[in-house]
Specification:
Number of domains: 2
Structural class: alpha/beta
Radius of gyration: 20 Å
Shape: globular
Strand order of the largest sheet: 8-7-9-10-11-14-15
Helix content: 25-40%
């Protein structure tokens, strides 16, 4: 379905409603020129991560631009984040006529901010991306939620490691994540997957990680940084496989260190990053096997959310209580396939692992992995044993 081109620019907010930011002005992203902004739809994307991507610009197939904030630090702590988001939303509603917001990721404090803003503006549309805390609290305040499919991500990573001849899995420690968060569910599914596939697991510690470990696989989280110097000197098999949530961040950081942090070398379409990453890592070390997401998940989720919101804004009879009429697994999957049809995608509703109750407001997205130098690994349609999911 052809639509008007969306051009949505990242809004960098550098102050809260009550306090001035305590940061060096050199670290603040340069403002976008006014003549470069042509707002077609009244939608704003708020990047709330405390530490963002290296500076750079992507142009998504939906037609909007994404600018990662680089060294910009969002306020820390629930009260400051709430104030920051609330101030940003109120300002853009009042001054720019914004009617919808995409918050990525949905960090702690987002719920409080949305609750406060809705008291004044009850009809604003809120889409949450990759919620970091209690999924049910986020659902209650948002129109819809898009997130990485923790089940496919967990089980798919273990199966991939086994296919590559790996039995020792280095896993991120999500045992202390908030109960009912997707990271909490991921941790449980991951442990069940390891048990079901009879694999050995070790908790990852960046400071004490042994790069000389033999025949091991590392499930990396967005916070993990690859040490190219240590990797290049290795003479043993080590595999890097996506953890949770699926992210391009570790690879982008490595590429920015190699090619420059101004982002001028980035491709116009994010899908082409795969080619750059493939070219870079295929020559780093033949002992290293790199498995990456087939497409930048962060871009895909926001891009899909933009298309979903465009449909909502065109409707005259939209109600949050009837969200599935406008946003559902079918519409999300259609958007993902339009973004990049060369890889496998899957969209499904979140189901509570304990009760089996399905949520019609949270949609989980899975995509195929890509092994450097080899090709795609089908993860999206991977069947998960009942012993792993408990359902």
């Amino acid at each position: 379905m052809k639509r008007l081109v969306l051009l949505i620019c990242l809004i960098g907010i550098v102050c809260s409603c009550t306090q001035k930011p305590q940061q060096n002005t050199d670290s603040v992203q340069k403002p976008v020129k006014a003549d470069a902004i042509k707002q077609v739809l009244p939608v704003a994307v708020l990047y709330a991560a405390s530490s963002g991507y290296p500076e750079g610009v992507y142009m998504g197939r939906a037609g909007f631009s994404m600018t990662y904030p680089g060294t910009f630090d969002a306020p820390q702590g629930r009260s400051k984040v709430s104030a920051w988001l609330e101030h940003a939303m109120r300002t853009m509603i009042e001054q720019q006529g914004i009617r919808a917001f995409i918050i990525a990721p949905a960090v702690t404090g987002m719920v409080t901010a949305v609750q406060e803003v809705r008291k004044t503006y009850p009809d604003i549309i809120i889409a949450a991306i990759e919620p970091e805390n209690n999924i049910y609290e986020v659902e209650a305040e948002c129109d819809f939620v898009l997130a990485t499919d923790y089940r496919k991500c967990a089980y798919g990573a273990i199966v991939t490691a086994k296919k590559l001849g790996i039995e020792k899995i280095i896993i991120p420690d999500y045992s202390k994540e908030p109960k009912n968060s997707l990271a909490y569910f991921y941790n449980n599914t991951l442990l069940q997957s390891i048990k079901y596939e009879n694999a050995e697991s070790i908790l990852y510690n960046e400071k004490t990680f042994d790069y000389s470990m033999q025949n091991a696989a590392v499930l990396y989280a967005p916070s993990i940084k690859f040490s190219e110097e240590k990797i290049a000197q290795m003479n043993n098999l080590l595999v890097f496989i996506p953890g949770f949530p699926i992210s391009y961040k570790p690879y982008l950081e490595a590429l920015f260190n190699q090619y420059g942090n101004d982002g001028s070398w980035l491709p116009t379409l994010p899908g082409r990053l795969l080619g750059i990453i493939n070219k870079y890592y295929i020559t780093v070390n033949p002992y290293i096997k790199m498995v990456v997401p087939g497409y930048p998940q962060e871009v895909a989720l926001v891009e899909s959310a933009c298309n979903e919101i465009a449909r909502i804004l065109e409707a005259k009879n939209y109600r949050r209580t009837a969200i599935t009429r406008f946003v559902n697994t079918k519409t999300v999957l259609e958007n993902l396939k339009k973004i990049d049809s060369s890889i496998g995608w899957e969209a499904s509703y979140f189901t509570d692992p304990a009760t089996g109750i399905r949520s019609m407001r949270t949609i989980l997205v899975a995509q195929d992995f890509y092994q450097i130098g080899k090709g795609f690994i089908p993860i999206a349609r991977q069947r998960i044993p009942a012993q792993v999911t408990g359902q």
